[in-house]
Each structure stands twice: as structure tokens, then as C-alpha cells.
Amino acid sequence: MSRVIQTYVFREDKAFFVSTINRDSSSMCSGRYAETMVWEWNSEKRERGAFVYQAEAPEGSIRKHQEIVVRLHEGDDIGEEA
To answer: Could you tell me the residue ranges of all domains in the chain?
Structure first.
């Protein structure tokens, strides 16, 4: 596992922590990919809260990470279509 990019997104009502790492695939098709995960962020305790979303992309890619950050910043709820 290696970190690629991490972002905090703050809105009036919520905060989120978005993290993308390169990781090894656990499937029979070996290889590496970028995994982006999103959690709610507790600013007061400085810790992750509830898990919100997960996405995958080619190794080293930050495109999906950026798309998610923009949508969160704009106030969109992310889901399977993110």
C-alpha cells in the first residue's frame, strides 16, 4: 500500500476525509489499483467517522479522487454513480 492523495472537504453542515492509496488486488487477476475511500470527518476529535463511499481506478490515478472531492465541495451527495 502506498498513499497517493488525501483531502479534507469542509461544508457548512459536514466534513469529509477522502483518501486514495495504491494497493495490491486481492483477486485472481493480480495487479495494483488506486482505491479511493470517503469517510465523514469529525473536526473536533480529528478522526474519521462513518464510512461513506469507495471507488477504484487505475494505479496512480487521482481522477476519481478529484471527481469525488468536487462533488462533495459542491454539496452533492455521493453514491454509486460518483
So the answer is: 2-73
